[in-house]
Specification:
Helix content: 55-70%
Oligomer: single chain
Structural class: mainly alpha
Order of helices and strands: HHHHHHHEE
Distance between the termini: 53 Å
Number of strands: 2
CATH superfamily of the largest domain: Winged helix-like DNA-binding domain superfamily/Winged helix DNA-binding domain
């Protein structure tokens, strides 16, 4: 790899690592597994860096590699043990979203219950804010598949949240309320 390509990769990896880790966490529900998946994804990106169209395809390719790394990691036999949740201070608020840690954990658990493809579609569409076409390219599927899997995923997510006693936020003229 040329020195300029290596410098470009390092810049990209440093800027994208946090966001990719968040996507991986939403896909697998475990920060350590998310970190492993991002490391694997970045290694795959590095190996193909000189062949990737960085003007249009890097974000899509990065998402595809993270999703693949998460799904591949879940297939490994030593990854099948159940991670126990750590006690959480339920009064802590996320500064960016205004949601409590408890609310975020409920959402992450509901996401974890979705089938892999539905979870990937929901995360990429609504947490990463990708378009239908970008999501389809990232997952290597057709646009229609993204639409149907996202619809089913959202329906299952809503049902899981409501059955778990989680009250969805409602919109009012004064903002979002509970």
């Amino acid at each position: 790899m040329r020195a300029s390509d290596e410098a470009d990769f390092i810049d990209y990896a440093e800027s994208a690592r946090g966001r990719l880790r968040q996507v991986a966490y939403l896909l697998c529900g475990d920060w350590d597994r998310a970190e492993d998946a991002v490391q694997e994804a970045l290694a795959r990106l590095y190996a193909r860096w000189s062949r990737i169209d960085r003007t249009a395809g890097i974000r899509t390719y990065a998402h595809r590699t993270v999703v693949s790394a998460v799904l591949d990691g879940a297939k490994r036999p030593w990854r099948r043990e159940r991670v126990t949740a750590q006690p959480v201070d339920e009064t802590v608020q996320d500064q960016r979203s205004g949601t409590s840690v408890e609310d975020r954990m409920v959402i992450v658990e509901a996401l974890a219950a979705l089938p892999d493809r539905q979870r990937a579609c929901v995360v990429l569409r609504y947490f990463e804010d990708l378009t239908i076409s970008e999501t389809a390219r990232a997952l290597g599927v057709r646009d229609g598949t993204v639409k149907s899997q996202t619809s089913r995923g959202l329906e299952s997510l809503r049902a899981a949240l409501v059955s778990g006693g989680y009250e969805p936020a409602t919109h009012s003229s004064e903002g979002i309320t509970r």
